[in-house]
């Protein structure tokens, strides 16, 4: 019984932290589920963009240090015009878009990559 507890505790330990670098911006992809139209949105950190009735703000984009084409993750705030609060606030990960996804009836938004220039 004690072995199971110790083994379970060992399995629950987090993986070693990865060094990351902040980027100047990000490329997001958006899908209008009604029309099937996709579009790419390029934002700089602190900038916002409009997608239909959504306002998207990019707070930060990070990628593995020394590998700008590596897995990007971006901190976004997405709000809907005419409604208080946000419909999404948090980090989206390029390699796992469903892990932390925007739940919206019309639009899907996900991170493609960070931009470094």
General description of the model:
InterPro entries: DUF2155. Keywords: Signal. The chain has 117 residues and is mainly β. The protein has one domain. It has one helix and eight strands, in the order H-E-E-E-E-E-E-E-E. Strand 6 and strand 7 form a beta hairpin. The longest helix has 11 residues. The chain is globular. 17% of the residues are buried. About 9% of the residues have low confidence.
Number of strands: 8
Rg for CA atoms: 17 Å
Number of domains: 1
Query: How many distinct helices?
Result: 1
Overall geometric form: globular
Assembly type of the chains comes to: single chain
What structural class results from the helix and strand content? Answer: mainly beta
Q: Beta-strand level of the residues, as a percent range?
A: over 45%
